[in-house]
Amino acid sequence: METIRGAVLSAHGLCRSFQGNRAVDDMSLSLAPGELLGLIGPNGAGKTTMFNMLAGSLQPSAGRIELMGSDVTAEGAEKRLGRGLGRTFQIPRPFPRMSVLENVLCGAQKQSGESVFGAAFRIGASRRDEARALEKARHILDFLLLSYLTDQPASVLSGGQRKLLELARILMADPKVILLDEPAAGVNPSLLEQIMARIVDLNTQGVSILLIEHNMDMVARLCSRVVVMALGRELAQGAPDAVIREPEVVRAYLGDAA
């Protein structure tokens, strides 16, 4: 794949093996500013491994990752989050006994009270940070239409609501790039429409998004471009409607049934 000039996130020749098996094999990818890019492929294609390397939770065995023009290959997920890269997971795991609001507040970054010095000597600053974080968390819950659940324990949320809650926690860090891992999985149709609308809103506000998803209707509606992976490599890329009709892509999904 040709690297996009000015890409906010790019991967160059990424490789990762597990017990001698190449899960990702010389994979490259670029996400343009303000783009909503889909990453699709059959089960076992290497998409999740690719996501984990881009997010910083898994180190590549070869290749390079750049975020906003900086080489972040050796950095972990927390440092990448500080640079503006957030990711969600296919199966969200909120703190079940904490309220929805408390879960969102866990995503606040660079609070004065986080250090011993800040807690002991900057009480006023800490309180102002807490007030700003609380206001921001409530605003995010309003945006995601979760404000009616603010004081409920996270344990009562449905699967789709947990996905929105995880997105809310990521938004507390003001990400410029978000990696979304199967936001439609296990979500009822009405709530899925709500999730899709929020994704579009975020993208319209300038957040660049890379989306892994098996729901091809959702991919076709949201993404202007998709990259197809199979056996750890790029198989095709282009507009969703065109790509999913390519014979190689059909065979990768359907095998002999194609």
TrEMBL record:
One of its GO terms (molecular function) is ATP hydrolysis activity. Residues 9-256 form the ABC transporter domain. The keyword Thylakoid does not apply. Keywords: ATP-binding, Nucleotide-binding, Transport. GO terms for cellular component: plasma membrane. It comes from the Bacteria. This is ABC transporter ATP-binding protein. The lineage of its organism: Bacteria, Pseudomonadati, Pseudomonadota, Alphaproteobacteria, Rhodobacterales.
